[in-house]
Amino acid sequence: MYRTFVSSILVVIATTCSAQAYDIIITNGRVIDPETGLDAIRNLGINDGEIAAISEFAMAGSVEIDATDLVVAPGFIDLHAHGMNLGDMRMQAMQGVTTVLELESGILPIADWYAEMKRQQTPLNYGASAAWTFGRIAAFTGEGPVAELSYF
């Protein structure tokens, strides 16, 4: 009886996954999720720009992307990004980058830089370190740093 019940639940779950229509489905891709350790061929259902389901079962969607022989991953982090303007970020996004970090040179005053990045409504996640170089220049010149890479 218990096995029949569990089997029925699994059939309902499988039917629900395959019956729901998604905005986009990515099929037959090698899905790698470091958080869970998943590394297998799966189908993904995406709604409103977010992954809504990952399944071994067939799915239906308005747009289908066949990812056979491709890896489906959440994106790439660029740890050494100096191109922090909108045009550069758009190019990086087209190459699969989802996060850019200015960690080598950094920037000061960092709060000003974050405010400007927010104002630009950039397409990527971003971050920066505080710049010792900017602090050193400010100390030697007696002028406050400006939150632009051209300050050098």
What can you tell me about this protein's structure?
This protein has 152 residues and is an alpha/beta fold. It is built from 4 helices and 8 strands; from the N terminus they run H-E-E-E-E-E-E-H-E-H-E-H. The strands form 2 sheets. Strands 1, 2, 3, 4 and 5 form a 5-stranded mixed β-sheet that branches. It has a 3-stranded parallel β-sheet with strand order 6-7-8. Strand 7 (97-107), helix 3 (110-120) and strand 8 (125-130) form a beta-alpha-beta unit. It is elongated. The mean pLDDT is 83.
Topology:
Elements lengths: L1 H18 L1 E13 L4 E10 L2 E6 L4 E7 L4 E2 L3 E3 L7 H9 L2 E11 L2 H11 L4 E6 L1 H10 L11
Parallel strand pairs: 1-4, 1-5, 6-7, 7-8
Antiparallel strand pairs: 1-2, 2-3
What characteristics describe this protein?
4 helices, 3-stranded parallel sheet, alpha/beta, 5-stranded mixed sheet, 32% helix, 152 residues
